[in-house]
Amino acid sequence: MSIITWFVHQMVETQKVLSRTDMTRSLLFLLALITTGTLTLSFTEGWSLLNALYATVITMTTVGYGDLTPQSTVGRLFIIGFTLLAISLGGYAFTNLSAYAIQNRERRLAARHRSKLMKRIDALQNHYILCGADWLGARIAEDFNLAGVDFLVIDTDADRLRKTLLHTHPEYFSKKIRYLTNYEPVDLDVYESLSLPEVSEKVGIPYLLGDPTDVMLLLQAGIERAAGLISTWDDDRDNLSIVIGARNIARRAGNETLRIMTRVNDPREMKKLYLAGADHVRIPAIVSGREMASHMLHPEIGNWWYSRSAHNEKNQGWLEQREIDAESVWRGLTVADMHARHGVVTLSVKRAGEFISPPPHDWILQVGDIAIVLTAAQR
After folding, report:
1. Is omega for the bond preceding 299 within 30 degrees of 0, making it cis?
2. pLDDT tens per residue across all 379 residues of the chain
3. Cβ atoms within 10 A of the Cβ of 246, count?
4. Which residues fall within 8 angstroms of residue 197, CB to CB, at 6 or more apart?
5. H or E stretch including 377?
6. Taking Cα atoms as reference points, which of 167, 157, 158, 169 lies closest to residue 135?
7. Where are the alpha helices (DSSP H) in 123-154?
8. 370 by DSSP, 3-state: which?
9. Which residues pair with residue 327 across a beta bridge?
10. Helix, strand, coil shares, percent, the chain, to 5
11. How far apart are CA 168 and CA 152, in angstroms?
12. Residue 154's closest CA among 43, 229, 262, 252?
């Protein structure tokens, strides 16, 4: 466990102890007030203990029915001071007790949510771990969700996590796009008012709130069972730390097939990331720059690319890769047959380590080929 994690754990435990101490003091103070008021009124007014207790409580709570009032001078002087004390210090004690009760309920709810969340994560197999809930991470989460794969998101910021998970919700995403690109009024409050646990439940995507450079968190994410890990952290040093930790844990756990991908901002850091164990390193600025240039030079290509990524029922066309094995229904078919029988457009075929883009119409798919196709609709 890292020093930071240990320190945070100790602070939380200390806060719990202090909360219990404040609650105990408040409870004892209230009992002392009630006892003092009851005994004093019983002695000065000659009331029974039950009547004195009744008068004390209605005085402390400022109810004041008026059915029992002190008649003696000593009793009246006492009740003046007692009322002032009960309203100020007694009210403070009541507030502390109420706050503790609310916090205790919230802790129980958080504990139940945490337990449920960890059960969902523990059940994941061949899933993907997304480290980073920035805009790049949000975009990756959208595509993962569209592809129907199991994944979870890790970030240190609860609000970033909430927003990233929200962007996987088709209706919210569609409204958000309209809000950003048009002048029409769009009501997003029904979604944006949700808490992080509520959003996670709504979209069905688990998360971990913490620092992915901490190897303990990667273990909680089930890295020994994961199919891949993507790090989108803005700091190249953090990405390097995540890659090193993920690769070493995966090797120790026997997960040699784990695919690791990371972003990098400084091209000079790429070699370090590859040496650390990354399978793929990408510079987002290069990909975005090419896309923007293509959109400027060929507007309709850009429009098509954006439309295929939209979360709506009109979205048609999705890229898929299919490995051709002995059981594949595509084995032995030509590219023309693929289009006629299965309604897919073959964009490229990888054979013997090389891509044929686009392949001829009479190209016959063989065992070992990898076909990259555009389907008629998302799957």
Report:
1. no
2. 444 344 334 434 444 443 445 666 767 777 887 888 888 888 888 888 888 888 888 777 767 666 777 888 887 888 777 777 776 666 666 677 677 667 767 677 677 878 888 999 999 999 999 999 998 999 899 889 988 899 999 999 999 999 999 988 888 887 887 777 777 777 788 888 888 999 998 999 999 999 999 999 999 999 999 999 999 999 999 999 999 999 999 999 999 999 999 999 999 999 999 999 999 999 988 888 888 888 888 888 877 777 666 555 454 457 788 899 988 888 998 989 888 888 888 889 999 889 998 899 898 999 999 998 888 654 4
3. 29
4. 110, 113, 117
5. none
6. 167
7. 135-147
8. strand
9. none
10. 55, 15, 30
11. 12
12. 229
Taken in order of first residue, the domains within the chain and their CATH numbers are: 3-118 (1.10.287.70), 125-282 (3.40.50.720), 316-379 (3.30.70.1450)
Distances, alpha carbon 118 to alpha carbons 61, 121, 126, 139, 209, in Å: 44, 5, 16, 24, 12
Query: If residue 106 lies in a helix (H) or strand (E), which one and from where to where?
Result: helix 91-122
Strand ranges of the sheet holding 354-356, from the earlier edge strand across to the other edge: 318-323, 370-375, 345-351, 354-356
Of the candidates 258, 257, 263, 256, the one whose C-alpha atom is nearest the C-alpha of residue 221 is 258
Does this model's pTM top 0.85? no
**Owner of token pair 């790049």:** 136
